[in-house]
Amino acid sequence: RAAPSPKMMENKVFMSFTFYSTILILKMYVVAIITGQVRLRKKAFANPEDALRNGGLQYYREDPDVERCRRRAHRNDMENIFPFLFLGAIYSLLDPSPAVARIHFFIFCVGRIVHTIAYLLQLKAPTRSVAYSVAQLPCFSMALQILLATTPYW
After folding, report:
1. Cα atoms in the Cβ-side hemisphere of radius 13 Å centred on 153
2. What is the chain's pLDDT, residue by residue, as a tens digit (154 residues)?
3. Each residue of 47-84: b (16+ CB within 10 Å) or e?
4. Residue 141 and residue 154: Cα distance in Å, rounded?
5. Are 142 and 133 in contact (CB under 8 A)?
6. Of the candidates 71, 25, 76, which has an alpha carbon nearest to the alpha carbon of residue 46?
7. What are phi and psi of 45, to 5 degrees?
8. Whose CA is closest to 75, among 48, 115, 17?
9. What residues form the membrane-spanning segments (predicted)?
10. What residue ranges do the domains of the chain occupy?
């Protein structure tokens, strides 16, 4: 097993980014597990072979609760967390202030966690929208800083 690059391990911003990114990936796994549990509880399977294994083809169907987890919450995560992973990695290379970077990563992470909780528990509006919007702020900030840093090279 190759030892981690000492330079990489010394980059406090990148280590902070790695920490929050891992939390977000784990959160996505939790949503996937919850989706599977809701499928089993509601007996709503996306594939005929799964339905047959769990009671019959009548359970090869869609369910609004499963769709809320799988299609909407999980897809929304992919639409937002994947760009964050790119932006955060590049932003980490710009040598930003570790404290400012940590605030960016923390706000995004908390915003996405609140967004998921609001989605899954069907919390009253505008909880989910506010969480979404708050989480977008650090992404726009990082994107702008990346563009400003790379403009001379276009």
Report:
1. 5
2. 666 666 767 899 999 999 999 999 999 999 999 999 999 999 999 999 999 999 999 999 999 999 988 889 999 999 999 999 999 999 999 999 999 999 999 999 999 999 999 999 999 999 999 999 999 999 999 999 999 999 999 9
3. eeeebeeeeeeebbeebeebebbbeebbebbeebbeeb
4. 20
5. no
6. 71
7. -115, 145
8. 115
9. 13-34, 100-121, 130-148
10. 10-146
Which position has the token pair 């799964």?
Answer: 50
The predicted model scores a pTM of 0.90
- Residue the block writes with tokens 């299609």: 71
142, 119 Cβ separation under 8 angstroms: no
